[in-house]
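Example record for the data management plan.
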Amino acid sequence: MERKEKVAPDLLEILACPICIGDLIYEEEKNILICQNCAVYYEVKEGIPDLIPEHSKPLKGMED
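Corresponding structural encoding:
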């Protein structure tokens, strides 16, 4: 089973969407960062957000 490390709270305060520079919402249970403006999410791996725009995934197709 993969260990999910949380994003540090101080890091969450300064993160922004790399596409629109909007706020990101941390979904702790799924360990993702959501940009509602762009309707995409970014995965967090080993506590490190993957904010490469090409790695974003659409919210519409997100599995529950």
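Summary line stored alongside the record: The helical segments are 9-14.
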